[in-house]
Amino acid sequence: MEKFTTLTGVAAPLPIVNVDTDMIIPKDYLKTIKRTGLGTGLFAEMRYNEDGSENPDFVLNKPAYRNAKILVAGDNFGCGSSREHAPWALLDFGIRCVISTSFADIFYNNCFKNGILPITVSPEDLEKLMDDAERGANATLTVDLEHQEIRGPDGGVISFEIDAFKRHCLLNGLDDIGLTLEKAPAIETFEQKYAGSRPWA
Description:
With 201 residues, the chain is an alpha/beta fold. The chain contains eight helices and seven strands. The chain has one domain: Aconitase, domain 4, CATH 3.20.19.10. The protein has a seven-stranded mixed beta sheet.
C-alpha cells in the first residue's frame, strides 16, 4: 500500500449528503475483484448520461476537477452497503483523501485499508473547505497527515483528529498484510519453537 504523508492537489466539491456506496460505484461494476479499472465507474450514474456520454455538469467532468486528488463531501459519506469497491474506485480515479463531517463506519475503515485518508471535520470547517473547493483550478489543498493539518489556498489551516494506530498505518503504508509481515520474524521464531516441541504435529 502506498504511504500517505503529505498530499497536495485539487479538491473537488461534492455538496451532497448521504452519498452511499452504490452512488460511489454502482452495482454493475461489482463483477470484478480487481482493484484497478474501477475509476471509470466512479459516480457513474452522475458522471454519464444514458447514452454513455459525459454529463458536463458533474463536478469530476469539469476540466478543473478531472485530476482531483481530494473530495470535499457532504455528511454521512459512504453509507449503504459495505462494498470495498467504493474505496477501490476512488483510489483508481486518483482520489487519496475524502473530507466530510461524518462517514459510515465500514466505508471509513475500508479507506484506511486501501491507502485513502478519510478526514472528519466540523460543519463550520467543512463549509470553509467547500468554499475553497469551489474555486476550480485554484482549489488546491495540502493535507499533512504527520501534522494533522489541512492547509487552504489562502494559507488557512484546519487541524483534524485521527486514531493514532490508523495514522501510523497510513504513514507507513501498512495494510492488514503489511502489518502481519512486520511480525514475520516473531512468527517464524514461534513456528520453529512449536515444530521443535511438537515434531509429530
